[in-house]
Fold this sequence. Notes:
elongated
Amino acid sequence: xxTQGPQKTIQQAILNNLFIKIQKTSTAINQVTEWSLFVLxxxxxxxxxxxxxxxxxxxxxxxxxxxxxxxxxxxxxFLGATVAYKRKAHIGIDFIVQKLPGNLATKIRILxxxxxxxxxxxxxxxxxxxxxxxxxxxxxxxxxxxxIPFAVIPLSGIxxxxxxxxxxMETILSESKK
Length: 178
């Protein structure tokens, strides 16, 4: 009798426990992100509506509202993309992968997740470098550090990475159960 069977079972249990922890983290991040998107979207709507009222009703433009609205839109776009990724809602060429034999389709999905994780890592590294590079520059209207709007790049990269690891592990574990 070989010990390879029990050892594989132990490894599988460890992998399952790790997956559960990462999945819970991914879900928690996604929930906080969804609430943040609601708050950011509501704030943006109020700011833009106020700007329109001031411009057309009072004939006075708020000099800071356009810049703040643009910054909020950037944050909403990046964070919204992470939510879409978590929900698997991004546009994909899934119909081609679905036509492939099961084993090959799984390998292509895994390869896609690995490439995505590499891209997300690049987003984090270079997004952080760029954010730190511009931290002393000030925005023209608000006078805040330009690193604040750009901080969403490495932050969303971290969220993408966590969601991507979850999706990769989900694919690997579902394949190993077959």
